[in-house]
Design brief:
The chain has about 475 residues and is of the alpha/beta class. It has helices at about 15-25, 40-45, 60-70, 80-85, 110-125, 140-150, 150-155, 175-180, 195-205, 215-250, 250-260, 280-295, 300-325, 355-365, 375-385, 440-445, 460-465; strands at about 5-10, 30-35, 75, 90, 125-130, 160-165, 185-190, 210-215, 335-340, 365-370, 405-410, 420-425, 450-455, 470. The structure holds uridine-5'-diphosphate-xylopyranose (2 copies). One uridine-5'-diphosphate-xylopyranose binds near residues 17, 38, 94 and 115.
């Protein structure tokens, strides 16, 4: 039986649901896409006429929104209508790590997924394909199926029925539009072949058939967790090597380049940095750890947990190096932080290394001037759990000596930002940080001035020629 698809809905208008549906709408102009979210403010931003006010920053997104919005792509809070009319419903809500109760600190909190499934059960009509888009613990499809097929739903009317599929999203933030347009693969897990074909037909509008993989539902769920775990593991591996480079005189950039030439290893995801952030890596690994523990696979659990442990240790290590190089104390010292997003080309700060490193430095009493081209000060305040303040003159003592202060800087054009600053710390690899005029910056800074480059993007020669000290992550010549 061929399933006819005319309307597609998505619950959750976040970093995944928003761009994914926008891409689909642009590639499938004959279908209608409704994206709904319980967060009214978020939906208002998606509908904002001023495209610079979309809730997420993603290169290329504005143009696609301009092409599709209010033509065949609609953002609203009307969940009931979106569910009633849909032939396919994507669930793309967030699944944070549980803070308390069973599995706290490791397993995912599925309350939003469950709530979404209940909404679908309540309002759906006829036959509906329900697609897990969020990254979920293995066997979540079973939970969704149980809710959808509960006696209550079935008794609503006889012609309600569902197929549940897993279709994880592999996009990376900052390159989401390109990743969606040219995916390495589309993974569809499920049991009902017709439903899987109906979903794959959406993608076939622009993705070659050989890139579309069909698997069983559990393999699909586990493949997504495994994929993120492997990627994160590469970063922890190279970051652990950066520490060895620093003490042996090796250079992590050279080591990365040398091992990346081995075609079995490959050159991607070998950039040493301040530790991985983002909404997925830590959460997904902890999910895997929880799963392994649940099934009594202690050694497997501790193997994967060490990836997260190294990441935490690495961030602490960088904060400590800054303090040590600045004569063992940063109390009342002004430090400029370049970059707060967890990577370049996004305004997302979830699990950003900048949060941990800034908190560590504030804890040491530092005064931070934080600049990021896309992250707003209120988000930084939420992440650092303190409000911004203005600073005292250099040399005067902070009244609250125990904890530093921070202030936001909205552009770097004015060199006054660097006035009386002891160190500049690069934490996100925004392109503009490659072009800092270190000579001009140096004239404002306190001597000896330092540049700490955790992303290996500063022009080392220029930094040194300007008369600044440079510490580069994983560079054995730092000492
Ligand atoms: C991601 C991915 O979907 C998932 O794979 C990953 O595991 C973590 O979260 P993302 O789009 O990055 O999702 O999350 P977020 O930007 O927080 O968006 C989720 C949206 O769902 C929010 O806008 C939230 O308001 C909405 N939501 C949540 C609902 O509409 N209904 C709910 O019941 C819960
Ligand atoms: C990741 C996965 O890449 C994507 O497939 C999945 O769908 C969601 O999770 P994302 O978190 O958006 O995507 O970004 P990613 O590019 O993977 O970067 C994650 C973190 O690792 C960032 O903090 C980034 O700076 C860091 N990173 C990445 C490195 O430190 N070095 C690298 O070589 C690559």
């Amino acid at each position: 039986m061929k399933i006819s698809v005319k309307k597609v809905s998505c619950i959750g208008a976040g970093y995944v649901g928003g761009p994914t549906m926008t891409m689909m709408a642009s590639k499938c102009p004959d279908l209608i896409f409704n994206v709904v979210d319980t967060n009214r403010e978020r939906i208002e931003s998606w509908n904002n006429k001023d495209l610079s006010k979309l809730p997420i920053f993603e290169p290329g997104l504005k143009a696609l929104i301009a092409k599709t919005r209010n033509k065949n792509l609609f953002f609203s809070t009307n969940i009931k209508e979106a569910i009633e009319s849909a032939d396919i419903i994507f669930i793309s809500v967030n699944t944070p790590t549980k803070k308390k109760g069973l599995g706290a600190g490791k397993s995912s909190d599925l309350k939003w997924v469950e709530a979404s499934a209940r909404e679908v059960a309540k309002y759906s009509k006829g036959y509906t394909i329900v697609v897990e888009k969020s990254t979920l613990p293995v066997r979540t499809a079973e939970v969704i199926e149980n809710i959808l097929n509960s006696a209550e739903t079935i008794s609503k009317t006889n012609d309600v029925s569902f197929s549940v599929l897993s279709n994880p999203e592999f996009l990376s933030e900052g390159t989401a539009i390109n990743d969606l347009e040219n995916p390495d693969r589309i993974l569809i897990g499920g049991e009902n072949k017709e439903a899987m074909i109906a979903l794959s037909n959406l993608y076939k509008a622009w993705v070659k058939e050989e890139k579309i993989l069909f698997t069983n539902i559990w393999s699909s769920e586990l493949a997504k967790l495994t994929s993120n775990a492997f990627l994160a593991q590469r970063i922890s591996s190279i970051n652990s090597i950066s520490a060895i480079c620093e003490v042996t005189g090796a250079d992590v950039k050279e080591v990365s380049r040398a091992i990346g030439k081995d075609s079995r290893i490959g050159s991607k995801f070998l950039d040493s940095g301040p530790g991985f952030g983002g909404s997925c890596f830590k959460k997904d690994i902890l999910n895997l750890v929880y799963l392994a523990e649940f099934f009594g696979l202690k050694e497997v659990a501790s193997f994967w947990e060490s990836v997260v442990t190294i990441n935490k240790w690495h961030q602490k290590r960088i904060s400590e190096i800054v303090v040590k190089k600045l004569f063992g104390t940063v109390a009342n010292k002004k430090l400029v932080i370049l970059g707060f997003a967890f990577k370049a080309n996004t305004n997302d700060t979830r699990e950003s290394a900048s949060i941990t490193i800034c908190k560590n430095l504030l804890n040491e009493g530092a005064d931070l001037i934080i600049y990021d081209p896309k992250v707003c000060p209120s988000q930084i305040g939420t992440d650092l759990e303190t409000n911004p303040t203005t600073f005292l003159e250099f040399g005067k003592v902070n009244v609250n000596e125990d904890y530093g202060r921070w202030t936001f800087c909205d552009n770097l054009d004015n060199n006054e930002v660097f006035k009386n600053v002891c160190a500049v710390i690069i934490l996100t690899e925004w392109a503009e940080f490659r072009k800092v005029n270190w000579k001009a910056v140096r004239t404002k800074m306190v001597s000896p001035g330092w540049v700490f480059d955790s992303r290996l993007i500063a022009n080392g020669k220029e930094v040194k020629e300007a008369g600044l000290n440079l510490w580069s992550l994983g560079d054995g010549h730092n000492n």
